[in-house]
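Narrative progress, year one. The postdoctoral researcher (J.K.) led the effort to move from monomer predictions toward full complexes, under supervision of the PI. The following entry was the first complex the group processed end to end, covering 744 residues in total.
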Amino acid sequence: MENERFNRGWEKLKEIDGKAGENVIESLRDIAPDFAKLLIEFPFGDIYSRSGLDLKSRELAVVAALTALGNARPQLIVHIHGALNVGCSKQEIIEVIMQMTVYAGFPAALNGIFAAKEVFGQTE
Amino acid sequence: MENERFNRGWEKLKEIDGKAGENVIESLRDIAPDFAKLLIEFPFGDIYSRSGLDLKSRELAVVAALTALGNARPQLIVHIHGALNVGCSKQEIIEVIMQMTVYAGFPAALNGIFAAKEVFGQTE
Amino acid sequence: MENERFNRGWEKLKEIDGKAGENVIESLRDIAPDFAKLLIEFPFGDIYSRSGLDLKSRELAVVAALTALGNARPQLIVHIHGALNVGCSKQEIIEVIMQMTVYAGFPAALNGIFAAKEVFGQTE
Amino acid sequence: MENERFNRGWEKLKEIDGKAGENVIESLRDIAPDFAKLLIEFPFGDIYSRSGLDLKSRELAVVAALTALGNARPQLIVHIHGALNVGCSKQEIIEVIMQMTVYAGFPAALNGIFAAKEVFGQTE
Amino acid sequence: MENERFNRGWEKLKEIDGKAGENVIESLRDIAPDFAKLLIEFPFGDIYSRSGLDLKSRELAVVAALTALGNARPQLIVHIHGALNVGCSKQEIIEVIMQMTVYAGFPAALNGIFAAKEVFGQTE
Amino acid sequence: MENERFNRGWEKLKEIDGKAGENVIESLRDIAPDFAKLLIEFPFGDIYSRSGLDLKSRELAVVAALTALGNARPQLIVHIHGALNVGCSKQEIIEVIMQMTVYAGFPAALNGIFAAKEVFGQTE
């Protein structure tokens, strides 16, 4: 049954994060292989696979939270890609980042916008 | 035109935050009346009034961000009410808080769940 | 096998957090039963059950991190109890909190010391 | 010379934080007497006693930082008192907290305003 | 009247942030032009333009807060320049960053000092 | 007696942080020599020199806290080196970082793992 959880997580990770997600897992294999396994199993196998909230809303919420926290730029980049992958529009992503001016201030939102600019530039 | 912005913000604040929002504004009138005015004009008149992202997604993103930041419980309470006010289901709110285990850890998510428990208890 | 993970987590949670941990799980059962299950399975079944670092060092590290973050007082209280439960001395707990003056400033450390004072007062 | 540092810190702590500062020191004496000593020596003996920036600017900066961090309300209360003690006006304190809307968001600033409201209510 | 607010903000932004501020606005024009407009109108048109606290104190407070938050280095750089632009001395800037050792720890302050070193190196 | 404190701190800094610590001090000498002195005296002379908790536990706690805060990568790098210098194994360091998934989320822990990967790559 653990296998099922891992497999479900692996499929979900590829659906959301695509190649960038696979690269993160790959880069963990030598230093912390158990971390790679847990990263697939818990966030993607246990959480993202849940029903009750659509993937688009989950990804917008994650972009919002990572923008507000402001201390995890690589993951924000991955999840702006992820938001696009699951069907969010560029406008929706920009709006949710702009919303963070109110809750985390302008510097956090500004750095979020610049992260989006980097991602959008790669996907055009 | 400033008046228009204030009025638009005031209507939006009442739509989202209801009585709780009005109480916050009221409690600011003696100590910082300009802050009350700016709180209506910028977050509600300028940001929440924007098109490009529906109010439900905005509120779920705000609940996510305030859960992740973990340092503004009164505002988290207000916005869990707000999410219900604009049509989010209790399940969607719980899901977006649970999603934060991955991005901000279990204590932040747990405190978010307890905030939701308090709000849901008042609205049943 | 999921069952094994849950059971291992449940035993570990009781070992570390004791009655306080059971109370948290209990308080989640009506509002978010899946969260209760995940809280047992991932933190306690997957992480705390790992070898490679003794429980005392894990708990001191958790007290340090929660003191530094400064936004999760209820969980800090639970883990100061937890640190005592797994064999840390009061002096070791005070020292690890004082160490945080350097990494998160005096207010965070001071609030950690007051949390310890509350816990130690209950356990004498 | 250590004595000199302690004495200089003690005088400075009383000048800035007044009775509230003395109470903090007193409350540490049983649980962490060395922390009390270090709190007098480093923040007050080493830092606040420096020349190169006047006390008013130091206290306004501390009120700004504690408002922005948003996770140390008791210390924010102490330093709003402190800002008044060293000659800041209520208006200056409100302005510096409002400034934080831009850098840490409206919830952080709002909680700062409410802390100021509590302090000003006690000092009128 | 909106125009007046925008113009007031634009003048204030140039006064405080100079060319660096204009560059930020320019870099937003393609990805999020509304964000550029709001950044001029709210922080600079509404907040920095207020009376009740001099610009030097505002900038020192912003340097303090961004140092303490520690997650917005580009904006800290801009505001160390800004503090110099409105008349703060290098010594005052160093002092306000050192003050943050007490409230946010040594790593945050150290990174603030290195940001100042970078800015001062460009302005000599 | 101040001299004694400085000397004790200097020896402790070299023991824990080695050459990297000396480089930090050196890089402060022109911009903020007093900060360099205080950095030796307080964190290393006053805190790390205390008895009551062994250096290995102190360093693991610091790695945990800096991983959780997620906004001080250069210092996290220094203290992963420091943990190795005082006798922690690579496995213990990886475990304490993985523990932070629970308390600060996966992005913070992931960035901690990548910091460890960088350090371990330099020390093999």
